[in-house]
Amino acid sequence: MVHDKQFEIFISKEKIQKRVSELGAQISKDYAGLNPLFLGILNGSFIFASDLFRALSIDAEISFIKLASYKGTSSTGNVITAIGMEENLHGRHVLIVEDIIDTGKTLTSFMPVLQQAGPASVKIASFLSKPDARRYDIQPDYNCFEIPDKFVVGYGLDYDGLGRQLPDLHILC
Ligand code: XMP
Ligand code: MG
User: Which of 26, 37, 68, 162 is least surrounded, with the fewest CB atoms within 10 Å of its CB?
Assistant: First the structure.
């Protein structure tokens, strides 16, 4: 039980660790010599980001930001601000680290904000992706697991703030 709902194990911690290691090896190969800057999106990505970062065999830096959206004018629609983006991203190879890409709304809004900082490149590494839930045209460049359009908790993801510390990924029954 997490909060008032029943969840069951969907992806075991062993499977997760194996897949994250593979992704770390792949990223190390692709970014060798580029000193990439990992940009973790809080709160959900904190566990994935720390495991992925420790799976690297190359020089890399890491920083975290929090995204907050608010209603803009009718012409700008929803506006997103990045809290804590103090790093100079100009000319850097940025790898966004996200827990899950669901509809794709969050990252679709954030991409133009990030591009304004003049990075050399921007790619996305997500722990999970829900392809069936996608409403915006955005895909992760690196992804650990594709999952069905169901609510999940554990490995950093929460249900109403709880369940982030669960080592396995759980799915709503
Ligand atoms: P979008 O739709 O913008 O969603 O791609 C991304 C953000 O929504 C949260 N999210 C979830 N959190 N279990 C969670 O704990 C889920 O199944 C889930 N689906 C979406 C998450 O914070 C993500 O950053
Ligand atoms: Mg999140």
Answer: 68
